[in-house]
Amino acid sequence: MEDAKPIVVQLYCRLEITVDNPDALFEAAERRLRSANIDWPSEQNTLEEAVAELRTDLEQSVASLVDPDQVLADVPGVEVRRGRWWAEV
User: Fold this and answer.
1) What are 37-74's pLDDT values in tens digits?
2) 3-state helix/strand/coil string of the chain
3) Which domain holds residue 61?
4) Whole-number Å distance between alpha carbons of 38 and 41
5) Within-domain flag for 80
6) This protein's superkingdom (predicted)?
7) To the nearest 10°, the Cα dihedral for 89, 25, 20, 68?
8) Is residue 86 situated within a structural domain?
9) What span, in angstroms and rounded, lies between the C-alpha atoms of 24 and 68?
């Protein structure tokens, strides 16, 4: 069988969420940040500074929880190559 050329598909998605418990959202974002594989000595901020900043910015916390790599993770032969996302009130 001849190797087929990959097909590039752009997926657009817009979600509207309501946040009834900002503290739970901040805690989830903090857990994700703390468990991320980040080389903190090479970063401009320390981990604690980044956590403090994240806990004061709802939009940044929401955006930090979006994981486009997991959208199609269980589908063989599909790879998420790049994405763009943000959050705003």
Assistant:
1) 999 999 999 999 999 999 999 999 999 999 888 888 89
2) CCCCCCCCCCCCCCCCCCCCCHHHHHHHHHHHHHHCCCCHHHCCCCHHHHHHHHCCCHHHHHHHHCCHHHCCCCCCCCCCCCCCCCCCC
3) 45-69
4) 9
5) no
6) Bacteria
7) 60
8) no
9) 21
